[in-house]
Design goal:
single chain; mainly alpha; ABC transporter involved in vitamin B12 uptake, BtuC; two-stranded antiparallel sheet; 1% strand
Length: 309
């Protein structure tokens, strides 16, 4: 229980929020608006899972929002050229993996700080996209939105795919060797090396996988609208990092579970609509989110300091 105190605390806070809404604002639980909210955040959950792995590995990737935008626009352009959606998905994933491999090569191969590398690539990819597209949206042909399925079916498909991916990654991180390698590298690089693990290779693979998930999430985002916004993904990096930190993943690396990330993301995304239903001014949503993130960082810092002493 003490080991997962942060995760249980976040889950309890989410439960209290939902219980409060059930008593004072039951309209929050209307099926279609609630499904739309969850569907809209399904791509964010996918990216947050990748971000959790990066942070557990004691790295950071703040370029995911820019990668997401580029992959979304590329997917939209290919779909507009009437490529089969399966090939569009594969291309989006490949583009994301290429971005991830570029970041990974600089961080793992050259030993550069990930915060500096991904800050540079964040600006480069975003500004390059602005220069190429000039803010022009991409119009999608008929049959792309929701994969050509009825809207509700498409929404449920995205939600279930995101949850299935969460389950698979949570299982892999606990029961498959590569998942344990990520924890080992994040906990102590030298100890991991002495145990026969190759920290640079693990770090490189984590960044590539981050790109793969970003490309996949971009496709999930693309099919939700008849147009693709080249500014999509703005603020995504902050949103996912916040969900990861609130969900109990240690900024110092080596600790955290994906179920905590899931609870952290749900808590953060539910606050603003919850306040709306409770007739509280909207700006309080950002204030509360900031306070939650600050508390999570302080708690993580205190825990790290206690372990060192």
């Amino acid at each position: 229980m003490n080991k997962y105190f942060r995760e249980f605390s976040v889950a309890a806070a989410l439960g209290i929020l939902l219980l409060t809404l059930a008593v004072f604002a039951p309209s929050f639980f209307q099926p279609q608006p609630l499904l739309s909210l969850v569907t809209r955040e399904a791509p964010t959950l996918v990216v947050a899972c990748g971000m959790a792995l990066v942070i557990i590995c004691r790295q950071i990737d703040i370029s995911v929002g820019s990668q997401f935008a580029v992959c979304s626009v590329c997917a939209g352009l290919l779909a507009a050229m009437h490529w089969p959606l399966a090939l569009v998905l594969a291309a989006s994933i490949l583009i994301g993996a290429t971005f991830g491999a570029f970041n990974g090569a600089l961080v793992a191969g050259l030993g550069l700080p990930s915060i500096v590398v991904t800050l540079a690539t964040m600006v480069t990819w975003r500004e390059g996209l602005h220069w190429l597209r000039q803010g022009v949206w991409v119009d999608l042909p008929d049959g792309v939105q929701w994969f050509g399925l009825p809207q509700m079916t498409g929404q449920w498909t995205l939600v279930l795919v995101a949850l299935a991916l969460l389950v698979l990654l949570a299982f892999a991180m606990k029961h498959i060797s590569i998942g344990r390698f990520v924890y080992a590298v994040g906990s102590d690089v030298e100890a991991a090396r002495l145990a026969g693990i190759r920290p640079r290779l693990v770090t490189f693979c984590v960044f590539v996988f981050m790109g793969v998930l970003t490309g996949f999430a971009a496709m999930m985002n693309t099919i939700q609208s008849p147009q693709v916004d080249p500014n999509s993904g703005t603020g995504l990096e902050l949103k996912t990092i916040a969900a990861v930190v609130v969900g109990g993943v240690a900024i110092s690396g080596g600790r955290g579970i994906l179920w905590g990330v899931f609870a952290g993301l749900l808590l953060l995304v539910c606050i603003s609509p919850a306040l709306t239903h409770l007739h509280v001014e909207a700006f309080w949503g950002k204030v509360i989110q900031g306070a939650i993130i600050l508390l999570a960082v302080v708690a993580d810092g205190m825990r790290t300091r206690k372990q060192r002493h």
